[in-house]
Structures are given as structure tokens and as C-alpha cells.
Protein 1
Amino acid sequence: MNHLDAQLPHLETFSVAAELCSFTGAGKTLKLTQAAVSQRIRALECSIGKPLFHRQGGRVSLTDAGIQLYGYAQQILNLHREARQAVAGEEVPLHGNLSLAASSIPGQHLLPAGLCVFRNRFPDVAVRASIEDSMAVLDRVESGQAHLGLVGQQTERGHFHFRPFVSDELLLIVNADDRWKKRQRIRLPDLLRRPIVLRESGSGSRWCLQQALLRKGHTLDDLNVTLELGSNEAVKEAVLNNTGIAVLSRLAVQRELDDGRLISLKIQDVDLVRDLFVVSDTRHALPRSAQTFLQFWLASHCTASA
């Protein structure tokens, strides 16, 4: 980098464009014309001597140089906010948009309560959250449609950053009238023979069961699968109606365990404890709202095994 003579507005424009993956979106947010946004970005690129964005149709993504500059830009802009607050006594509220995607377990059983606390602290942040299976969540984070994801599995895609935040135990569950109702533990060969209801492909719970079976020399094909269903609620209803047994998160079945409609068992020598993760894509810039939520979430949930 030869020199950087751009002023704060240029860095702010660059940061917003990076966070929204759009020059048009940055213009709307900052109340600038698209020409003004483009001019500020070009000024930065000329000053640095490297392109900061990949242009792909109407969307943009950061180059390696852009990713590096974004980190420094955030430090400069945050320092500016702190200076205003310290010198002028001016409180700078957190505002902006926050887009989240979560798989069914964290999305249904952890996220709602957490968002209530977060929104009470930061009422000027507009939050949008979707609940999908883990693979769909990862796709949304990868495409930039979600700033952060909450999932129950990791993948080998190297541009993802997975941060464990809580441990989750999966249980073998049976109907209260099942012939195994008085047993506390069953052997894996017995499990393989029983009709079982699975979550759909892409589910983190299914992936966890698959990995546990692989460690014992088996695959999902060795199970006697009677149904594959797209939600934990559907799987529970199938078990309650004696369609088969199932393996689900304790969080998903705690109510039915407490009222006695379902019974949980252990599978001998099979580990079904997993971590839940917050995931981000290192190629996409996290806005201040997402950075703040990430810090809040990890501080609120720090019981992962990793």
C-alpha cells in the first residue's frame, strides 16, 4: 500500500458496500447516488493500487486486498465512534440490519430467547432470521444472504469459520408404550433391526447420527428406515404414533420426556454428543451489527465441548 489519503466517508462507503455486497445497496443506505459510491470506491482503489471488489453482475464481493482493508476500516470507524462518544459525550447507538439463518434446534429452541435479549439491548437493529436445515443455512451464509448461521454440523469448505457455542446431546427416543420402555440402554445391533424415523438429508441431527455410525463401522444404509421427515416435530409425531423409533436432540424432545409421552434411551458405546456452531464466511465482511451479535451470542452460550 503506497498511501491512503481517503477520508472517513470513503471508508464508510467501502465498508457498507462490502457488508451489503452491493454498490446500489450502499447508495440507498448512505443516501448517495450509485455514481458517488462508485467514485469513492475508485478513489480508494487508485490510492491503494489494487482492486477492492470483484464485480459480478449487480453484486460485489471483496478481493483479498479488500478483506485486508475492511479490517483496518472497521478499526478506524470504530475509533471515530469512540472518540465522538468520549469527547462530545455523544452516544452512538448500534443500528443497521442483521440477517441470521439457523437450523431447527438452535433456531427453535435457543435463538428466540436470545433475540429477545439482544433486541432489548439494541432496539435500533433490524433483525431477520430464517430457520432451515443445516446445509441450507450454510448455503445462505456462503451466498451472503445471511451474515451468520447457527448449525449443528461442520463442513470442509475452508472459507467457513465455525465457532462452537454449546453442546447438544442426541437421544434415542421411543413411544411410552414401546417394548423398550423399561430399558435404559440398548446395543447397536438391536437398534439396526428396529424401524426408525430419520430427519431429511441436510439435517444436522441426521449428520451427527451418520458420523456416530461411521465410527462403529456402519452407515445409514444399515438402518431399517421406515420414514424420512423434514422437521423434528414431524419425527416426534411419527414416534408418538408408533411408526418407529428416532434419534433427536434433547432440546427437541424435553417437553415430551417431561410429560411421559416419550422415553429416552442410550445406545451402548455410541457417542451422540455434538457441538452447535456459529458460522460465518471469511470472504464476506461482517457489519457492526453482526459483529456485536456474534460477541453477544458467544458470551451468552459458552458451554461447548470444543
Protein 2
Amino acid sequence: MFNKIISIHGVPRSGTSWLGQIFNSLLNTRYKFQPLFSYAFKDAINIRSSKSEIMGYYEKLYSTNDEFLDQTKQIEKGYYPQFNKLNSPDTLVTKMVRYHYLIPKLLEEVENIKIIAIVRNPFEVLSSWKNAPKELPPELDFEEEWRYAQNRNLFKPEEYFGYEKWKEATKLYLWAKEKYPDKVLIIKYEDLVSNTEALTKKMFDFCNLEIDDQTLEFINVSKSKKDDDPYSVYKKDIDLDKGQKQLPKCIVDTIYQELNDTEFKQFL
């Protein structure tokens, strides 16, 4: 059974899949993909859940084998690697691109949890969303959706597409880091790309994990192999400035103007 929990958080198109697989590459972790969005655990906990209900959810999640939670089809297609694992890893890792509003509740109720929040600059997030057909259906007009993603989020609190939701999530991460500095680590996607091994060691140290050869091998392969599928974790030659070039200038200018003198400027 596990003795610690790591919850990875980031808005859609922030690099959470790659980050999740970095943690998944450890022998001593058990990784679960978007559990609260799965059929098995849809809305299993909420802001009114008790500590015992939350811990019961994590305990059941740890012992559940599920095609969605374990992303078996993604592994079969080669989008994600197949890693060697211990029979009973002591660390449960979850990846969350929804339900970030639960972060305060999790930090308050769960003693042995660490939050790793990844923030990608909003230009790249929006551009990546714009270019992912499954995430932005062709019938939706990006220039009408980029700010609120009203027809993608459908105003559901658990959904985090669009610029305003990027701000909401990022502000929440910053608050959480200030209140729970020993439980929350914020990383930048751009730093993970440019200095992967060093930042991985920093994250693992924060979570009391030890890097192993399988992780180092995955980092090397993921940065030396290219797969153009938007869901693949193999991303050789990532252009960190591509997003601005692909967005309408009026959107880029608006974002700069709105964020330039705010706490969000550090992520531009």
C-alpha cells in the first residue's frame, strides 16, 4: 500500500502528460490518469468530502486496474512507454487537468500529499489547444473561444480550457504554494523542456523520491524521438516560441497588456 500521494496539476495542453510519465517512469510509483474524469471514479470526491472519504477514494484508486486510469490503449499505440514496476509501489501519482478547485481541500485534509503544478505560458497553451482537434472541435471558432472557452468548458467548474481558466488555475497554484510551501511545488513547462534532468531531480527531491535509470532513459528517449501526435510524450525539438507565432496578433497583444504588471508576468 502507498504511504504518499503526488498530485500533478496543470490546465489542458500544459505538458502534464510528459510530466506524468516522468513520475510514472519510477519503479516505485503507481500512476493513475485523470481519476475524477474516469467512469470508475467520476466525481468520487468533492469539496464537501470528509478526510476519511478522500483517503478511501485514494485507497480504492490505488488498487483499481482500469483501461482509462492506466492508459493501456495509449501504451499499446506507442504514445506512452511501458515501464517496469514494483509489485506494491509506495507512491501513488495522479495526473489532473480538471478539478483543480479541489487543491485547497486536498492540502487541508491529506497529510502525505504533494502537489506538483506545471504552468506553461498562455500563448503556448492556447496555441496547443487550437491545434488539437479533439480538444477544439472544428465547429468552434477559436477567436470566439480563446478567452472563456464557453462552448468547450460549458461553464463547468471542473473544466479549465481557455485564457481565463489559465489565470484562475495559476492564481490557485500561487496561493497554494504560499500557504503550503512544503506541500506545493510550481514548475514552468519551459524549464522542464530546457533543463529536464535537473528539474526532475528537484521535483523528486521535493517528493522524497530517488531518480533511477529508467527515468533517465525515458527523459533521453522522450527528447530524442519525435511523434507529431498531440497526445504523444515524444517531443524532440520543441519550439518554445511557436505559440505566439501561431496566434492572432490581437490576442497576443491583449494577453501581454493584461498580464504585464501582474503576478502572472513570470510565466510569459
